[in-house]
Amino acid sequence: MGCVSAMEVENVKGFLSLFSDGTVSRREPIFHVPLHDDASIHWKDVQYNPKLQLFLRLYRPADLPNSPVVFYFHAGGYCFGSRTWPTSHNYCLRLAKELRAVVVAPDHRLAPENRLPAAVEDGVESVKWLRRCAVREAEEEWVADADFDRVFMVGDSSGGNLVHHLAVRLGAGSPEMKPVRVAGYVLLSPFFGGIMRTQSEELFNKEALYNLDVHDKFWRLSLPEGENADHPMSNPFGPRSPSLESIALDPLLVVACEEDLLRDRVEDYARKLKKWGKEVEFVEFVGKEHGFHTMDNAYNTEASHELMRLIKQFIKRT
User: Fold this and answer.
1) Which of 210, 222, 238, 255 lies most in the core, judged by the most C-beta atoms within 10 Å?
2) Which of 107, 156, 260, 264 is catalytic?
């Protein structure tokens, strides 16, 4: 009897295919942009989870003691992405240079092979790695003289969703990570979902690279099998999501883009947290699309510079 070939059961714009036997095919990276490395920032890769063979990339300006630490969690709908992608690498170089900070860019396990909450668990482990460095249980000279009392989390799209879950998981002051203290969180167009459509989802351009079909597929592939978009990992205000009203959170900077299907969900997220007394700054970039700050044609625009100024000001005052 002949072999039966596995059938394709899910396809994300030709970039990812899931087959009936559970195998996954990816075309990486999706975005091809030139590198912007002027050699002013040193960088290297470090393994933070030997068991799962997970790596992070460290970025450090030369001779900069007592600098803040900024984590950057990449985009990709939990199904794509890596610290090595040019879009992520460029932005981390920029963060390190302009914020004068040590930047930590962890990879995490990808869905659908590793469905949520795997990526969030990996995010927690990357913070634990920094804590091990702080208490000298792990040796890493590039962070040895960093200011562990000024640690910040920046998350882009799905990375922003991950950062939200870190903020809730670690709580205000991140007491379980002492002497590491997470002082604030930056969510850039965080990847949220829900069964009920928002206006920005319903009216969004169907021809865009990141459209509602792709959005839905990312959730279908990344959530636990059989779950829907009201799952707590997707919808922070869903019927099964724990209330955030009574949870103490550190300050958040929440950024939305006008030309983004996520716009309404991001604004609603910030509005509800503010209503419950959380310290939240919400900024919307008019006329800008999802992920504009990492695209090469926007790298030196006024909007990308303004976003960096906002992050810098947030870190300075927090």
Assistant:
1) 222
2) 260
* Length of the chain (residues): 318
- Strand intervals (E) in the chain: 8-12, 16-19, 24-26, 41-49, 54-61, 69-73, 102-106, 151-156, 182-188, 252-259, 280-289
Catalytic residue among 74, 108, 165, 290: 290
- List, for residues 34-81, the tens digit of each pLDDT value: 888 888 999 999 999 999 999 999 999 987 889 999 999 999 999 999
The tokens describing 206, both together, are: 């169907």
Give me the DSSP letters along 161-191.
HHHHHHHHHH-TT-GGGTT--EEEEEEES--
State how far the Cα of 188 lies from the Cα of 155, in Å rounded to an integer: 6
pTM of the predicted structure, to 2 decimals: 0.96
Task: State the catalytic residue, choosing from 67, 88, 157, 189.
Answer: 157
Could you confirm whether 290 is annotated as catalytic? yes
